[in-house]
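Hi there,

I know you've been waiting on this one. I reran it after we fixed the sequence typo, so this is the corrected version. Both the input and the resulting structure follow.
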Amino acid sequence: MDNRLTYSWIILSVLISTKGTIRISSYIVAHNKFNITCQWTGLATDVIFYRQTQTLAYPSAGGEHSRVDNVLQVTDPENECHIQSSLIVACVCIKYSAVSCIINNTLEEQLIVQWKCAIYINGDRIFSNITSLKTYEPAKITTFQVDAFQGVSHVTLKENNTAMLTCISEGFPIPEISLKRDTLAFGASIVQSEISIRGQLNKTFTNVSRQMTGKYTCVASNEHGQSEQSLYLNILYPPSVIRTDNVYINEGEGLNITCKYEPGNPPETAVHWKKEGIIYSNKTLLYPRVARTDAGNYSCIATNTYDNGHTNFTGVDSQRFILHVLFPVSRKIPVTDFSNYGNEANIYLGGEVTFSFSALANPLPTSAEYVWHKCSDTNCTEIANSSRSYIETYRDFSNLTVVNITESDYGMYILQVGNGIGKPHTEVYFLKRLSSLPTKPMTNMTVIGLLAGLSGALILVIIFVLAEYVHRHLTRTETIDVGCQSVVPTTSYNDDTTVKLPFVPLDRLDVQGEAIALYSSAAQLEIYSQIDLQLVEEMISRNDGSTNETQLV
């Protein structure tokens, strides 16, 4: 059986008034539709197509089959875009540039159809390229990208940003598109056009996380083929500092703490410790001997950075801990109350006194850890609140007040206070007796009289001292050193008429005329030098009924 090919041409002519270029393109829209577009430069008046059909001819046909069909002509494409055709067709004229038509036509498998355009320039006919129509097109991916990262196969994003993956494919029949990471498929929105063979898949990730780092693949397929493209998402995130518990350490001990963290992306990490805005060290916080001034809030700060020109990233994480430096109780500041200068007070019978103590310690003592004692020559008795003595105690201070002072109240008082760190602190106070002064409020005249009297008294004192010196020099009587056997005065001012009232500065007289004799710090040091604290602690530890005769000096 002799098969012969028969060629038929449908002539498409493009008449233009100026020189130009021309090209033709086509693609399948559906099984019974295709698009053909003729593009040119210049001005055109009419458009006619050339179509060449190659088909199988049977011998009985008696020769070649030829058929010329004027299937499509477009006139005045610049204005009216008038279409003449025996086919079902819809055309769009693009002024000065192109005619694009959708033609309804079922393609038969025995036909091979080719189309081309031709234009006339100065009487010369110029043909376009030839385009062939096929009944199928294998799937092909033309675009797979993340947002504006066109053509980038390794995309870097910051954690918590939003990103959209777009995959575009072409083919006929229209390809099915899917997105997967490893073997996991993602749901996505698919957009398809009714006048094209293009399919598009969009996948939006909101607040991308570090778990989304990895390789993503777009797959497009139809019955004639499959295509796929991959890209890699690199999610940047900061390191994660592991929390350090608060530290409690005794003063003088060593401290060594390393900042621990989970690396981020990128994994290169800079680490340092900071206290109150000041950088103290790098990854390791080291103190050979901790001081109380080292206490405070410490933060471990871990940082990673990334810069590739398109994406700049700095990741920071931090954790804080508190360093508590523990140290025993000591006296905070000297008490400046006029009723308690230093640790010694001179008060008259019937008066009152307050001994105060401010604690410097960590932790601060509890109220129960402040214990006041009244000591005699042989033992010390814990003081409890009564009608004439009461104790006011808070965490950082304690006050002992004695009112309506009697002879038995004079002597030594001891405060012991601890906080469980080191040895308890012992503070010693002395209450000495002072004769009474007039209690009437002083007027200006009183002050003037007192000044005059004191001036005269000063002269008498000088005369008395000189006479006493002469008397002692002549008699050379022996003296007896009795030592410091007791802190309680043994001589009553009321019974000894030769004892003069001590000089009291006017600024130390209160509004009731009460006077307080102030002792220098040198005198206070002399008092402390006469006290054996070990004996004091032994006396406190004894039972209240003890009659041991051990002296305090």
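Quick highlight: Residues 141 and 169 are 4 Å apart (CA to CA).

Best,
R. S.
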